[in-house]
């Protein structure tokens, strides 16, 4: 036999109120699982949108240049030449990889921004026509 839950003031809860609480909790969980940017329509600056790929791009360029310097040092330095020959190409490849990732990331963000603008426009059109 299932006993109804009692609240702190001693009154019993009815089953419909329990369903209401459950459905509200479910929608809260669903909302919290989504990112904030989907729900807020405030416009962001270019730096806020592109700062991550720009940082990856600049770090990649710096590491690539560092690898170039190390490889050029291997031509001029006669001592411990093997260390320069091993680490130079590693820095070159790591820098090139970060550089390409940053360069590819920027068009992806642009495409997402266009899709988001289209989606907001279509949502406003839908609300305009269907809420009359």
TrEMBL record:
Keywords: Membrane, Transmembrane, Transmembrane helix. GO terms for molecular function: phosphatidylinositol bisphosphate binding; transmembrane transporter binding. Residues 1-20 are annotated as: Disordered. The chain crosses the membrane at residues 54-77, 89-109. It is found in: Membrane. It is a multi-pass membrane protein. One of its GO terms (cellular component) is plasma membrane. It comes from the Eukaryota. PANTHER family: PHOSPHOINOSITIDE-INTERACTING PROTEIN, PHOSPHOINOSITIDE-INTERACTING PROTEIN FAMILY MEMBER. This is PIRT protein.
């Amino acid at each position: 036999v299932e006993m109804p839950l009692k609240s702190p003031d001693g009154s019993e809860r009815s089953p419909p109120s329990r369903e209401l609480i459950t459905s509200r909790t479910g929608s809260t969980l669903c909302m919290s699982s989504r990112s904030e940017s989907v729900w807020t329509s405030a416009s962001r600056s270019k730096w806020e949108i592109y700062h991550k790929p720009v940082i990856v791009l600049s770090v990649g360029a710096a590491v690539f240049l560092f690898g170039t310097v190390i490889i050029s040092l291997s031509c001029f330095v006669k001592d411990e030449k093997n260390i320069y020959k091993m680490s130079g190409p590693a820095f070159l490849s790591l820098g090139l990889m970060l550089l390409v990732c940053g360069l590819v990331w920027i068009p992806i963000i642009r495409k997402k921004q266009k899709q988001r603008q289209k989606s907001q426009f279509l949502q406003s059109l839908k609300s305009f026509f269907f809420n009359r």
